[in-house]
Amino acid sequence: MRRRNPHGLFEWGRRRLLIYLTLLFCGMAATAILVVALQGMSTALLIVLVGAIFSLAGATLGSYIFGAQWDTNNARNAGVTELTVGDDPPEGYAG
Questions:
Q1: Do the beta carbons of residue 46 and residue 33 sit within 8 Å?
Q2: C-alpha to C-alpha distance for 54 and 57, rounded to whole angstroms
Q3: Residue 56 and residue 61: Cα distance in Å, rounded?
Q4: What percentage of the chain exceeds 90 in pLDDT?
């Protein structure tokens, strides 16, 4: 059974699709840069582009992993409405 998202946030299916598309773009761009490099274009620019592409891929994967953990913690804590302690001391407290 598919669960509904009560808060209207991105569903995980959409998130995964965006991640896959981003990584596919990174792979295609890296392949294109490799082809251009083999044809003898300036390597300084290509090195910068490859660094940017790998940074994008790393940031995408990192945000996916840590974003999933963050969402899990937020969903777990969503039922908590009050984090304060009441005025009455606990039963048996001798302070």
A1: yes
A2: 5
A3: 9
A4: 21
